[in-house]
Amino acid sequence: MTTRWMTYASPIGPMVLAGREDGLIGAWIVGQAHFGGVLPDWREDPADASLCAAARQLDEWFGGCRTAFDLPLAAVGTCFQRAVWAQIARVGFGETRDYGSVGAALGKPGSARAVGAATGRNPFTIIVPCHRLVARNGALTGYAGGLERKRALLAFEAGSRPFRFAG
Description:
The protein is an alpha/beta fold. It has helices at about 50-60, 80-90, 100-105, 110-120, 145-155, and strands at about 5-10, 15-20, 25-30, 45, 95-100, 135. The strands form 2 sheets. The protein has a 4-stranded mixed beta sheet, covered by helices on one side. Strand 2 and strand 3 form a beta hairpin.
């Protein structure tokens, strides 16, 4: 399958959206942890309909008109990572969960660190809202895009309009 990609100019910095025929494989902030960049065999295609749909939905989300995404995702990861990402996708706009509760929901109590590691490799920034995961005491912990972005995303979801990130 051919991987197509485009750059998306988001309010939190440039992002790379990438997909294949079976769905979106990633939406990364350029420079975020665990994103190695565009691969040589990927084809840039800013007119690709599925990538444009992802960009449009991100525009709607940042504009305050959308609280969830309706995109076909083709996640590439281990079974555990994909299970964690599916569980994170269930955390609603403006809500937070702690890493341990995600593990417990997967039937793996005591797996908060493993959930955190899988969360750090989430390839779908914002679309699979890993910024909504916090420590058990509510503290903000790791975010592949940086804690300042995480704070801005959570503030936005808590009602701060328009979206602001000083980055």
